[in-house]
Amino acid sequence: MKLMFKQRFFSWFDSYDIYDESGNTIYTVKGTPAWGHKLQIYDRYDNHLATLREHIISFLPCFDIQVNGQTIGTIRKEFTFFKPSFSVDCKGWRVEGSFFEWDYQIMSSTGKTVAVIEKQLFHFTDTYIIDVPDMEDSLLALMVVLAIDAVKCSQNN
């Protein structure tokens, strides 16, 4: 299943809409005021599903993954020189990106591709295509994309 991740053009905080291939809204992401990034994820019926919260004091960017009010893991940027790399400790996933940090693959601990993320160029806002073969992985894959986007946004400011 392919999801389109699109940042809203007019918003005070980070806000995103995530669509399926038919253009239906699957998830909505709302940024909330906090030290660091704090993103709330909702389903199409406005039910809260998860929260992604950035650690304030950390050598490299790190985000807590909270589902149903419980922290289930973290997404952490790894120290690398040329290729950006992130780890997701709740499923043993790792994220490897291109030199320009625009395209990523999420890999399982067994080497299986969990998701492929591709940034769409020439849009007014950040827009990504997330290709997730297993829909059960879509929420966590979305949280990885949100964390990477937040890190890139912070580096550009």
From TrEMBL:
InterPro entries according to UniProt: LOR, LOR_sf, Tubby-like_C
Transmembrane segments: none
Protein origin, superkingdom: Bacteria
Family: Belongs to the LOR family.
Annotated protein name in UniProt: LURP-one-related family protein
Organism: Lacrimispora xylanolytica
